[in-house]
Amino acid sequence: MFFKIIGLLAAVLTTFSFLPQAIKTIKTQNTEGLSLGMYSIFTTGVLFWIIYGFYLKDIAIISANIITFIFAISILIVLIKNNFKK
Amino acid sequence: MFFKIIGLLAAVLTTFSFLPQAIKTIKTQNTEGLSLGMYSIFTTGVLFWIIYGFYLKDIAIISANIITFIFAISILIVLIKNNFKK
Protein backbone atom coordinates (compact mmCIF):
# COMPACT_ATOMS: atom_id res chain seq x y z
CA MET A 1 0.00 0.00 0.00
CA PHE A 2 2.83 2.41 0.96
CA PHE A 3 4.44 2.23 -2.49
CA LYS A 4 1.07 2.66 -4.24
CA ILE A 5 0.80 6.00 -2.39
CA ILE A 6 4.36 6.88 -3.46
CA GLY A 7 3.37 6.19 -7.07
CA LEU A 8 0.21 8.27 -6.79
CA LEU A 9 2.15 11.13 -5.13
CA ALA A 10 4.78 10.97 -7.89
CA ALA A 11 2.07 11.38 -10.53
CA VAL A 12 0.22 14.16 -8.68
CA LEU A 13 3.41 16.13 -7.87
CA THR A 14 4.90 15.98 -11.39
CA THR A 15 1.51 16.82 -12.93
CA PHE A 16 0.64 19.80 -10.72
CA SER A 17 4.21 21.10 -10.42
CA PHE A 18 3.64 23.03 -13.67
CA LEU A 19 0.75 24.99 -12.10
CA PRO A 20 2.96 27.45 -10.13
CA GLN A 21 5.07 28.01 -13.27
CA ALA A 22 1.97 28.60 -15.40
CA ILE A 23 0.57 31.08 -12.84
CA LYS A 24 3.93 32.94 -12.58
CA THR A 25 4.35 33.11 -16.36
CA ILE A 26 0.79 34.26 -17.07
CA LYS A 27 0.91 36.83 -14.24
CA THR A 28 4.36 38.30 -14.98
CA GLN A 29 4.51 37.54 -18.72
CA ASN A 30 8.25 37.17 -17.91
CA THR A 31 9.78 34.24 -19.80
CA GLU A 32 13.37 35.47 -19.72
CA GLY A 33 14.96 32.46 -18.01
CA LEU A 34 12.66 29.92 -19.66
CA SER A 35 13.78 27.67 -22.51
CA LEU A 36 11.55 27.71 -25.60
CA GLY A 37 13.27 24.46 -26.62
CA MET A 38 12.23 22.77 -23.37
CA TYR A 39 8.57 23.75 -23.52
CA SER A 40 8.24 22.90 -27.24
CA ILE A 41 9.73 19.42 -26.73
CA PHE A 42 7.95 18.86 -23.40
CA THR A 43 4.51 19.85 -24.74
CA THR A 44 4.98 17.52 -27.74
CA GLY A 45 6.03 14.70 -25.41
CA VAL A 46 2.99 15.23 -23.18
CA LEU A 47 0.75 15.16 -26.25
CA PHE A 48 2.27 11.78 -27.17
CA TRP A 49 1.57 10.55 -23.61
CA ILE A 50 -2.10 11.49 -24.09
CA ILE A 51 -2.26 9.58 -27.40
CA TYR A 52 -0.50 6.59 -25.77
CA GLY A 53 -2.89 6.80 -22.81
CA PHE A 54 -5.89 6.54 -25.15
CA TYR A 55 -4.24 3.56 -26.87
CA LEU A 56 -3.80 1.85 -23.47
CA LYS A 57 -7.27 3.09 -22.35
CA ASP A 58 -5.47 4.22 -19.15
CA ILE A 59 -7.49 7.01 -17.53
CA ALA A 60 -4.61 7.92 -15.14
CA ILE A 61 -2.14 8.55 -17.97
CA ILE A 62 -4.79 10.41 -20.00
CA SER A 63 -6.02 12.69 -17.20
CA ALA A 64 -2.59 13.47 -15.68
CA ASN A 65 -1.16 14.41 -19.06
CA ILE A 66 -4.18 16.48 -20.16
CA ILE A 67 -3.74 18.56 -16.97
CA THR A 68 0.01 18.92 -17.55
CA PHE A 69 -0.62 19.78 -21.22
CA ILE A 70 -2.92 22.67 -20.27
CA PHE A 71 -0.28 24.17 -17.96
CA ALA A 72 2.61 23.57 -20.37
CA ILE A 73 0.83 24.94 -23.46
CA SER A 74 -0.14 28.14 -21.58
CA ILE A 75 3.55 28.67 -20.71
CA LEU A 76 4.57 27.86 -24.30
CA ILE A 77 2.09 30.39 -25.74
CA VAL A 78 3.53 33.22 -23.61
CA LEU A 79 7.07 32.08 -24.56
CA ILE A 80 6.25 32.14 -28.31
CA LYS A 81 4.48 35.51 -27.98
CA ASN A 82 7.52 37.04 -26.25
CA ASN A 83 9.89 35.51 -28.79
CA PHE A 84 7.95 37.17 -31.64
CA LYS A 85 8.20 40.56 -29.88
CA LYS A 86 12.06 40.38 -29.87
CA MET B 1 3.94 -1.31 -33.12
CA PHE B 2 3.08 2.30 -34.06
CA PHE B 3 1.68 3.11 -30.62
CA LYS B 4 4.65 1.46 -28.87
CA ILE B 5 6.83 3.99 -30.72
CA ILE B 6 4.49 6.81 -29.65
CA GLY B 7 4.89 5.67 -26.03
CA LEU B 8 8.65 5.48 -26.34
CA LEU B 9 8.78 8.93 -28.00
CA ALA B 10 6.58 10.36 -25.23
CA ALA B 11 9.00 9.08 -22.58
CA VAL B 12 12.13 10.23 -24.45
CA LEU B 13 10.73 13.71 -25.26
CA THR B 14 9.45 14.47 -21.74
CA THR B 15 12.68 13.14 -20.20
CA PHE B 16 15.13 15.02 -22.41
CA SER B 17 13.04 18.20 -22.71
CA PHE B 18 14.64 19.42 -19.48
CA LEU B 19 18.13 19.28 -21.05
CA PRO B 20 17.82 22.57 -23.01
CA GLN B 21 16.45 24.28 -19.88
CA ALA B 22 19.30 22.91 -17.74
CA ILE B 23 21.89 24.07 -20.29
CA LYS B 24 20.30 27.55 -20.56
CA THR B 25 20.04 27.96 -16.78
CA ILE B 26 23.60 26.77 -16.07
CA LYS B 27 25.03 28.92 -18.89
CA THR B 28 23.10 32.14 -18.16
CA GLN B 29 22.53 31.63 -14.42
CA ASN B 30 19.31 33.54 -15.23
CA THR B 31 16.33 32.09 -13.35
CA GLU B 32 14.17 35.23 -13.38
CA GLY B 33 11.12 33.73 -15.13
CA LEU B 34 11.47 30.32 -13.49
CA SER B 35 9.25 29.18 -10.64
CA LEU B 36 11.05 27.87 -7.53
CA GLY B 37 7.75 26.28 -6.51
CA MET B 38 7.57 24.29 -9.77
CA TYR B 39 11.10 22.92 -9.61
CA SER B 40 10.86 22.05 -5.89
CA ILE B 41 7.60 20.13 -6.40
CA PHE B 42 8.70 18.61 -9.72
CA THR B 43 12.07 17.37 -8.39
CA THR B 44 10.31 15.78 -5.38
CA GLY B 45 7.80 14.13 -7.70
CA VAL B 46 10.56 12.75 -9.94
CA LEU B 47 12.32 11.37 -6.87
CA PHE B 48 9.10 9.55 -5.94
CA TRP B 49 8.92 8.15 -9.50
CA ILE B 50 12.45 6.73 -9.01
CA ILE B 51 11.43 5.09 -5.70
CA TYR B 52 8.24 3.72 -7.32
CA GLY B 53 10.29 2.48 -10.28
CA PHE B 54 12.57 0.49 -7.94
CA TYR B 55 9.47 -0.92 -6.21
CA LEU B 56 8.10 -2.06 -9.62
CA LYS B 57 11.63 -3.09 -10.73
CA ASP B 58 10.85 -1.14 -13.94
CA ILE B 59 14.13 -0.09 -15.58
CA ALA B 60 12.35 2.34 -17.96
CA ILE B 61 10.73 4.33 -15.13
CA ILE B 62 13.97 4.27 -13.10
CA SER B 63 16.30 5.36 -15.90
CA ALA B 64 14.01 8.02 -17.43
CA ASN B 65 13.41 9.63 -14.06
CA ILE B 66 17.07 9.51 -12.97
CA ILE B 67 17.96 11.43 -16.15
CA THR B 68 15.14 13.95 -15.58
CA PHE B 69 16.16 14.26 -11.91
CA ILE B 70 19.73 15.23 -12.86
CA PHE B 71 18.48 18.00 -15.18
CA ALA B 72 15.79 19.23 -12.76
CA ILE B 73 18.05 19.30 -9.67
CA SER B 74 20.72 21.30 -11.57
CA ILE B 75 18.08 23.91 -12.43
CA LEU B 76 16.76 23.86 -8.84
CA ILE B 77 20.27 24.43 -7.40
CA VAL B 78 20.77 27.57 -9.52
CA LEU B 79 17.26 28.74 -8.58
CA ILE B 80 17.95 28.29 -4.84
CA LYS B 81 21.37 29.97 -5.17
CA ASN B 82 19.81 32.98 -6.90
CA ASN B 83 17.00 33.17 -4.34
CA PHE B 84 19.56 33.34 -1.50
CA LYS B 85 21.35 36.21 -3.26
CA LYS B 86 18.17 38.35 -3.26
TrEMBL record, chains A, B:
InterPro entries in UniProt: PQ-loop_rpt, SemiSWEET
Organism superkingdom: Bacteria
Principal localisation: membrane
Keywords linked to the UniProt accession: Membrane, Transmembrane, Transmembrane helix
Alphabetized Pfam families for the sequence: PQ-loop (PF04193)
Localization (cell): Membrane
GO molecular function terms listed in the Swiss-Prot or TrEMBL record: sugar transmembrane transporter activity
GO-annotated cellular components: membrane
Transmembrane region(s): 34-52, 59-80
Entry membrane topology: Multi-pass membrane protein
Record-given protein name: MtN3 and saliva related transmembrane protein
Upper taxonomic lineage: Bacteria, Fusobacteriati, Fusobacteriota, Fusobacteriia, Fusobacteriales
